[in-house]
Design a protein that fits this description.
The chain has about 200 residues and is mainly α. About 65% of the residues lie in helices and about 5% in strands. About 25% of the residues are buried.
C-alpha cells in the first residue's frame, strides 16, 4: 500500500504529466492506499479531489473493501456543496466536438488517440488532394483521357481512392470514439495507469 500510495501520488500531482483519466485513477488509488495505511485526512483530500473531477464516480464493491467505500461516500456527503460548485465552475463539454475528430478525442482527454487520428487524417487527406490535383493536371477534358500518362494515371487513381477511403474511415472511427466516450466523466473508469517507470498497474 505504501508503494501504491507513492506511485499514485506522483501521477495525481502531475509530476509525470498524466492525462485527466490517469490523474483521476491515481487519485482513487491514492485515497484507497492512504485510508488503508491509517491516514484518513490524506485519503479524504484525495477522494475529494477525485469527486471534484468525477462527481458521479463510485468505488467498485467487487475490488474495494466496504469500509473504504463507506468512507468514500461519507466524503461525498460531507462535501456535497463543494463538489457541486466544482461541477458548475468546470468548463463544459460540447457534443458537437465529438463529431469533429480529433477534437472529440482531445475533449475526452485522449491525447494520444487524438494525435494518431489527426495524423492519419492529415496524411490521407493530403495524399487525396495531391493525387487529385496531379490527375487534373494530366487529364484531357474532351475525352477524359491522360495522354502520355495513362499508366501513371491509373496508379494515382488507385492511390487517390485508397487515400479517400482511409480518410473517411478515420473520420467515422473518430466520431464513434468521440461520441462513445463523451460521457466518460460519469462512468466507472478502469483502475489502470502508467507508473513513472512505464509499468502498468491494475488495482
Amino acid at each position: 500500500m505504501e508503494l501504491v500510495a507513492e506511485t499514485a501520488r506522483q501521477v495525481a500531482e502531475g509530476r509525470v504529466h498524466p492525462t485527466p483519466v490517469q490523474r483521476a485513477q491515481a487519485l482513487r488509488l491514492l485515497g484507497i492506499a492512504l485510508y488503508l495505511t491509517g491516514r484518513p485526512e490524506g485519503a479524504e483530500s484525495a477522494f475529494l479531489e477525485l469527486l471534484r473531477l468525477r462527481p458521479n464516480v463510485r468505488l467498485d464493491p467487487t475490488t474495494t473493501r466496504p469500509d473504504v467505500i463507506g468512507f468514500f461516500e461519507t466524503v461525498r456527503a460531507q462535501h456535497y456543496e463543494e463538489i457541486q460548485r466544482a461541477v458548475r465552475d468546470r468548463p463544459g463539454k460540447h457534443f458537437i466536438l465529438s463529431l469533429l475528430p480529433p477534437a472529440g478525442q482531445l475533449q475526452n482527454g485522449n491525447r494520444a488517440r487524438a494525435l494518431v487520428i489527426g495524423a492519419v487524417e492529415v496524411l490521407s487527406l493530403g495524399v487525396a488532394i495531391g493525387t487529385y490535383a496531379q490527375l487534373r493536371s494530366w487529364v484531357r477534358d474532351s475525352d477524359q483521357t491522360f495522354p502520355g500518362h495513362t499508366s501513371d494515371a491509373q496508379t494515382l487513381k488507385t492511390l487517390n481512392n485508397v487515400a479517400v477511403g482511409v480518410f473517411a474511415a478515420t473520420v467515422i472511427v473518430g466520431i464513434i470514439d468521440g461520441v462513445a466516450n463523451f460521457n466518460r466523466d460519469s462512468s466507472e473508469p478502469s483502475l489502470a495507469f502508467l507508473t513513472p517507470g512505464g509499468l502498468g498497474f491494475h488495482f
